[in-house]
Write a structure and sequence with these properties.
- By secondary structure, this protein is an alpha/beta fold.
- The chain has a domain of 104 residues: 3-Layer(aba) Sandwich (Rossmann fold), CATH 3.40.50.
- It contains seven helices and nine strands.
- A six-stranded mixed sheet has the order 5-6-7-3-8-9, with helices on both faces.
- α4 packs parallel to α5.
- The relative contact order is 0.21.
């Protein structure tokens, strides 16, 4: 298994966000995660990424992890290239990988501009580059197509396809189309569910 959770729990003060979440994700599978705002989706991704410790249970993720979250995790006053070079050094990645990703996301011409000058869609494309720099084995994706116009999405989607993925999405049809497994979060509980109707019940 690429990902295994057993009895995972997390609270913020007295507010329990996740309680006894248990599941396994096979290598190469996509787990789509659905739930209303505040259901614990982002908390779950942060736990899987190792950015947040569960207060109960165990987590095992096999291989390198790439995270594409709500925040782009980029330094706004540095250029696109400087940001990616910084992350490349952290992971011991050759700079040639930066050029490849910039070209594939259509951002080569903006490489020497400060991130703060970019539109939200362009910033999202650079965040995709950052998440993929070290060729992760497991991708954690929180609304990965947010702020992308159709042309940018067409560039980015193939880069995010394949491999083991955990995908958080508010778009039910889109998420189900990409999913091998579906996790529904509601009332701090998580369970594997099946079908669009079951997903929509989470938001009722």
């Amino acid at each position: 298994m690429a990902i295994e959770l057993s009895g995972v729990g997390r609270a913020y003060g007295e507010r329990v966000v996740l309680r006894d979440v248990t599941l396994s994700v096979p290598k190469g599978a996509t787990l789509a995660v659905f739930g209303a705002n505040g259901a614990g989706k982002t908390t779950l991704l942060r736990i899987l990424a190792g950015l947040l410790r569960p207060q109960a249970g165990t987590v095992a993720v096999q291989g390198r992890i790439g995270l594409l979250g709500h925040e782009p995790m980029l330094y706004r006053d540095l250029s696109v290239r400087q940001n990616l070079e910084f992350h490349a050094r952290l992971h011991g990645v050759a700079f040639a990988r930066i050029g490849e990703l910039l070209e594939r996301t259509g951002m080569t011409a903006r490489a020497d501009e400060a991130v703060r000058t970019l539109s939200r869609g362009m910033t999202q494309r650079i965040a995709v580059c950052r998440a993929l720099l070290h060729e992760p084995d497991v991708l954690l994706l929180d609304e990965p197509y947010a702020n992308l116009d159709p042309a940018a999405r067409e560039l980015v989607a193939p880069l995010l396809a394949g491999g083991t993925r955990v995908l958080v999405s508010h778009d039910v049809e889109e998420g189900l189309a990409e999913a091998d497994l579906v996790l529904g979060l509601r009332g701090s509980r998580g369970a594997l569910i099946d079908g669009a109707a079951a997903v929509r019940e989470l938001y009722a």
